[in-house]
Amino acid sequence: MPTLIKYAIPYFAQMSLPPITLFHRLEPNQILEVFNLWNNEYPEKLSHDSVESMDLYLEKLENPIHFISKQNEKIVGWASTFTRDYERWFFLIVSSEFQKMGIGKSFINEILKHESNLHGWVIDHSNDKKKDGTPYPSPLSFYLKLGFIIQASKRLETNSLSAVKISYLSKVKEPL
Length: 176
Prior knowledge:
The protein is an alpha+beta fold.
């Protein structure tokens, strides 16, 4: 009699990815949620002291588009694109509980439907700690897999951030 082998399917593989919704302005309850997501997932040095501080940061973004993904009515991912120095920039945060499930890639794919070129600062080392004391893992390899390139000559070095500039440049075909 043949042996029946059952394969376990990981829980996240059984889940469908949560949808991504676009907003031009966040509501107060969304600002509170993204404030918590930011402070829990980014290095502690980049934390906002208050929801008001986060709101002021968001108010200063030029031409922002916010992308939000929810699971069970809770924001599990947030990305924003905005204009800085005549370029479109972005940041992306996915809750650590939902990383490695394809949500980050879905965000980038959705953003690229609206933007042809993107730029961002990415921490390229593992020296930073998150608010809970765990190491902040550099997402650089994630972006490189998705076609971003490192602008090695462009670094941001401040008291709170050491990062390299990354860019996604659409491939424009030359006329024949």
